[in-house]
Amino acid sequence: MTSPPLLEVRDLTVRYPARGRRTPPVLAVDQVSFTVRQGETLALVGGSGSGKSSIAAAVLMLRRPESGSVRFDGQELTGLDERALRRLRPALQPVFQDPYGSLSPRLRVHDTIAEPLRVHGRWDPLTGPARVRELLDLVRLDGSLARRRPHELSGGQCQRVGIARALACDPRLLVLDEPVSALDPSVRAGIVNLLADLRDELGLSQLFIAHDLALVRHVARHQVAVLHHGRIVETGPADRLWDAPGHPYTRELLAAARLTA
Ligand SMILES: Nc1ncnc2c1ncn2[C@@H]1O[C@H](COP(=O)(O)OP(=O)(O)OP(=O)(O)O)[C@@H](O)[C@H]1O
């Protein structure tokens, strides 16, 4: 049985304004539609400049789209003001590519993970520390790391801290913008497996953005959308795209993936 849609994106269009007279506006995302269902992962895969990050920013309402609809749990986000969005943000959490850059260098791991609870008024001094330990446990990090700062952690450990921070307020959807691209290949599989476990254990929906079709094959047993020049050119289960790519651009991605595999 298919689960209900949690995120429904319809005809999403993102355009960046002209920078001066000589640079025309950029149509980064052109009428893109997709659905992420409860407890499922949708992978968006495409090359550099295909519009992946612009879609992530629009879904998270960090950049308002020019047109189109973004419905989250039945609620249209595009018309909401900042106050209404702030109430929704705990349920809709980002994880970014650069594990060091996305953590504050001054904060210890404990405070990084506690921060969203504090910001959203959910920090309880009695139960908070145990919640931080629970979150470290969820991302398979030893509790002894709680006192460290980012420069005392590996890239993989930093990304796990970023995921723990995203999980702190019990989100329903993670928007993962190239979450393993900056990591050493030897630690990528660990993060990919962790995300799959979190999806299955917590029923957590995920929009997983990547440029590598080989990686996506391990991530999204459910559905993959191939993005090219701001448009979705093909969708299907990862194994089907791998074995029988229909669109010439998917074949290009496949050839690149096979070269590096
Ligand atoms: N702030 C901006 N102003 C103008 N153009 C932009 C801006 N951000 C992105 N673009 C352009 O929009 C298009 C899509 O960019 P986007 O970053 O969304 O793609 P991407 O698939 O995430 O690329 P990459 O993998 O290289 O990060 C590109 O042509 C890019 O140059």
TrEMBL record:
Example GO molecular function: ATP hydrolysis activity
Pfam families hit by this protein: ABC_tran
Taxonomic source organism: Nonomuraea polychroma
Key words of the record: ATP-binding, Nucleotide-binding, Transport
Name this protein carries in UniProt: Oligopeptide transport system ATP-binding protein
Family named by the database record: Belongs to the ABC transporter superfamily.
The organism's place on the tree of life at top rank: Bacteria
InterPro entries for the chain: AAA+_ATPase, ABC_transp_ATP-bind, ABC_transporter-like_ATP-bd, ABC_transporter-like_CS, P-loop_NTPase
The keyword DNA-binding is annotated on this UniProt entry: no
GO process annotations (BP): transmembrane transport
ABC transporter domain span: 7-254
SMART domains in the cross-refs: AAA
